[in-house]
């Protein structure tokens, strides 16, 4: 008579797996998430915005541009040597695709770089206008007339829940949720004091 035994692998967040490889993969994901969260915490609120809004997208656009350029350089010599019209058309189609990818990525890089430059110039102003006032969060929700009031973090006038809220219109730090009506519902998107939605 055989007795079946099953081993349960429990990860550090309390999840259980019956497959060791799945448990190890999940544990690695948790470690990576913790490292990214810690890196974000150390960047501070301005640094997080700079990293996620500009630096990461810029690096991704550069990666796409360079990959497209590599394909273009691989395809260009094939054009002159190809005698078969059908294959030549296929090569030209690929060149068109990667050429468009290259130009789009380069254009995106330029736009992100300009945005980053403007954000860096704005940073001292952002730090000044968002200094902590009295230890209580000043963010105003769409469904209340009073500020949030939770303890502030990182030397700003915002709490943990509102420290990374940015205006969807101009990119400054948000101070309140839009309380305008959008199709019968309150909008609720984050805005700064300088911007206003028209619904």
What is the share of helical residues?
40-55%
Number of helices: 2
**Strand-residue proportion:** 5-15%
Report how far apart the termini are: 73 Å
**How many E-type strands?**
6
Helices and strands, with pairings:
Layout: E1 9-10, E2 16-17, H1 20-81, H2 85-129, E3 176-177, E4 181-182, E5 185-186, E6 190-191
Antiparallel strand pairs: 1-2, 3-6, 4-5
Offer a concise description of the structure.
The chain is mainly alpha-helical and 199 residues long. The chain has helices at 20-81, 85-129, and strands at 9-10, 16-17, 176-177, 181-182, 185-186, 190-191. The protein has a domain at 131-199.
Question: Can you offer a commentary on this structure?
Answer:
With 199 residues, the protein is mainly alpha-helical. The protein has a domain of 69 residues. Helix content is 54%, strand content 6%. Strands 1-2 form a two-stranded antiparallel sheet. A hairpin with a 2-residue loop joins strand 4 and strand 5. Helix 1 crosses helix 2. It is extended. The termini are far apart.
Distinctive features:
two-stranded antiparallel sheet, mainly alpha, 199 residues, single chain, 54% helix
């Amino acid at each position: 008579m055989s007795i079946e035994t099953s081993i349960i692998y429990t990860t550090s967040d309390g999840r259980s797996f019956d497959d060791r490889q799945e448990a190890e993969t999940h544990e690695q994901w948790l470690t990576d998430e913790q490292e990214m969260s810690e890196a974000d915490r150390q960047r501070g609120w301005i640094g997080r915005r700079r990293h996620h809004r500009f630096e990461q997208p810029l690096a991704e656009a550069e990666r796409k541009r360079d990959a497209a350029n590599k394909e273009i350089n691989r395809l260009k010599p094939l054009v002159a040597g190809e005698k078969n019209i059908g294959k030549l058309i296929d090569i030209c189609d690929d060149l068109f695709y990667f050429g468009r990818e290259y130009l789009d990525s380069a254009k995106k890089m330029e736009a992100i770089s300009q945005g980053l430059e403007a954000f860096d110039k704005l940073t001292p102003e952002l730090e000044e206008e968002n200094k902590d006032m009295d230890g209580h969060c000043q963010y105003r929700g769409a469904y209340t007339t009073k500020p949030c009031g939770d303890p502030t973090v990182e030397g700003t006038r915002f709490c943990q829940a509102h420290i990374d809220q940015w205006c969807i219109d101009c990119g400054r730090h948000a101070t309140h949720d839009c309380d305008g009506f959008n199709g019968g519902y309150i909008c609720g998107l984050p805005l700064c004091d300088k911007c206003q939605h028209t619904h």
